[in-house]
Fold this protein.
Amino acid sequence: QVQLVESGGGLVQAGGSLRLTCAASGRTFLVNKMGWFRQAAGKEREFVASILSGTGHTEYADSVKGRFTISRENVKSTGFLQMNSLKPEDTAVYYCSARTATIGAYDAWGQGTQVTVSP
């Protein structure tokens, strides 16, 4: 099993930056993909970004392209989400996720970290 713990959330003004960290533990060698999702109040959880462990290939939601950058430090099994030019609509609980199966859905989730962007 893999356990994930997010950190780095907080309150920031519009236009500011935050860096989220996802610390993975357990059988991290099984992780082949890491992702970030977010859920705003009253809305469904949505995809933000993902990165493949082997190739480093990244994908982003259109709403964050050019502003957010996902990365991963494989040796320390740590993931990051650098968020720049934050907007009030980025306010949400951000969740780190990991996939250990060859294909399919993410099977490990963190507890979430709150990001609040004030106007």
Q: What stands out?
A: The CA atoms of residues 48 and 62 lie 9 Å apart. The radius of gyration is 13 Å. The mean pLDDT is 95. The first strand starts at residue 2 and ends at 7.
